[in-house]
């Protein structure tokens, strides 16, 4: 494996870590409703666990309410149960074949707790990026030992890997700041 390959695979893996962080941050709820909040809720669909968006339509009624309309009337109870039992702390209400999911207002204490949660998620993503940097640097050292590249090439490549790492860490910090601002906004 050459220097270019090491840098390319390292950068791809770092971007995957950032994408994973984005998905984790999307699950943390803010005061506003959005349909992505329910994406990871699993429903028992005739013995098979399926994502809620595969068994129902989801829409926003207003800024604090999501409406969920299962495609089959028999599934209304199962969908409502899945939302209620999820770790989101939501209390859905059934009206005929439509389930309304109101978003409770966040208290100041809960907002602070959510900020702590996203900071932990961000720190996990930073650790993943730093581990990828370490692995790339080790691969470069192995190339030097095998006398496939010179020490000068190794140093230049390590500098480039560090620049990629710095960009990814800055991107993570930016996403965390945006999410924190979103959570703390009343």
TrEMBL record:
Keywords: Cytoplasm, Protein biosynthesis
GO biological process entries: cytoplasmic translational termination
Residues of the Ribosome recycling factor domain: 22-184
Compartment(s): Cytoplasm
Top-level taxon of the source organism: Bacteria
UniProt xrefs under InterPro entries: Ribosome_recyc_fac (IPR002661), Ribosome_recyc_fac_dom (IPR023584), RRF_sf (IPR036191)
GO cellular-component term (any): cytosol
Residues annotated as transmembrane: none
Recorded GO MF terms: ribosomal large subunit binding
Main location: cytoplasm
HAMAP family: RRF
Role summary: Responsible for the release of ribosomes from messenger RNA at the termination of protein biosynthesis. May increase the efficiency of translation by recycling ribosomes from one round of translation to another.
Similarity field: Belongs to the RRF family.
Designated name of the protein: Ribosome-recycling factor
The species this protein was found in: Thiomonas bhubaneswarensis
């Amino acid at each position: 494996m050459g220097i270019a390959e090491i840098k390319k695979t390292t950068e791809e893996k770092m971007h995957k870590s950032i994408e994973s962080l984005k998905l984790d941050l999307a699950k943390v709820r803010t005061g506003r409703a959005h349909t992505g909040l329910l994406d990871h809720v699993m429903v028992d669909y005739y013995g098979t666990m399926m994502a809620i968006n595969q068994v129902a339509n989801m829409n926003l009624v207003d800024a604090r309410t999501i409406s969920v309309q299962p495609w089959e009337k028999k599934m209304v109870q199962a969908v409502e149960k899945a939302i209620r039992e999820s770790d989101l702390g939501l209390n859905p209400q059934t009206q005929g074949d439509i389930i309304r999911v109101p978003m409770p207002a966040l208290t100041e204490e809960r907002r602070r707790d959510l900020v702590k949660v996203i900071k932990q998620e961000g720190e996990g993503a930073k650790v993943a990026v730093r581990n990828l940097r370490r692995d790339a640097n080790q691969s470069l050292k192995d190339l030097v030992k095998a006398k496939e590249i010179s020490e000068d090439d190794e140093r230049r490549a390590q500098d480039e890997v560090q620049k990629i790492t710095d960009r990814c860490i800055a991107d993570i910090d930016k996403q965390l700041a945006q999410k924190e601002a979103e959570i703390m906004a009343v």
